[in-house]
Structure formats: C-alpha cells, structure tokens
From TrEMBL:
Transmembrane segments: none annotated. It comes from the Eukaryota. This is Bifunctional dethiobiotin synthetase/7,8-diamino-pelargonic acid aminotransferase, mitochondrial. It comes from Vitis vinifera (Grape). Keywords: Aminotransferase, Transferase. One of its GO terms (molecular function) is transaminase activity. InterPro entries: PyrdxlP-dep_Trfase (IPR015424), PyrdxlP-dep_Trfase_major (IPR015421). The keyword Transferase applies.
Length: 106
C-alpha cells in the first residue's frame, strides 16, 4: 500500500518552518514595532519616490483601510494647515475656523 501522507520528519520540518514564518511575519500591527522587511521597504520608499516630501510611511492590510487612513491623514493635515485643530490646553490659542464640506458619492 502506498503512503499518501507526509512522513513524521517532513511534518516536523514543515511545522518548524511555518512556526518560524509566523513569528517573523505575524499579522499584528503595533505602531512602535516593525519587522525588518517592512522597515527596508519604508526606507526605500522614503529615499526613492518620497524623497523631499515624505517623512513617514503607512502600510495597510487591504485597500479600503488604506483609503480610509489616507483620507483621515489628509483631513488632519488640512485641519492643521488651516488652524482648524487648535491646542486645547493653551487658553491663548486663537485661530480661524473654516467650514469643511465633503461630498461622497457612489
């Protein structure tokens, strides 16, 4: 009879390799931690296409989250540039307020 399943040693080797990969490329995102391939990619992006204007990178696990975060970052940048976001701890903070209207269509 032919053996149609992996040998014990193959299973052990496979489990070890999968465990190594899972530990190295886990899908847990912490802003203050990074694994080496993501860091290398970020450095290449900042030194290449982002040179002169980008100082940070953001990696997302899917397109809808990437768009959502990009919009939030754009609104925050716009708000900071136009004095919409003010320092709430400073009683002397004064600034102009403008109305922001956003139209989303399907």
């Amino acid at each position: 009879m032919t053996q149609n399943y992996p040998t014990k040693w193959f299973q052990i080797e496979l489990a070890r390799d999968v465990g190594y990969a899972a530990a190295r490329f886990g899908h847990v995102m912490f802003p203050e931690n990074v694994y080496e391939p993501a860091l290398e990619c970020a450095e290449l992006l900042l030194e290449g296409v982002g040179k002169g204007w980008a100082s940070r990178t953001f990696f997302s696990d899917n397109g809808s989250t990437a768009i959502e975060v990009a919009l939030k970052m754009a609104f925050r940048k716009f708000s900071l540039d136009h004095g919409i976001i003010l320092d709430s701890t400073d009683p002397n903070t004064t600034g102009k307020f403008i109305e922001v209207k956003v139209l989303f269509t399907n």
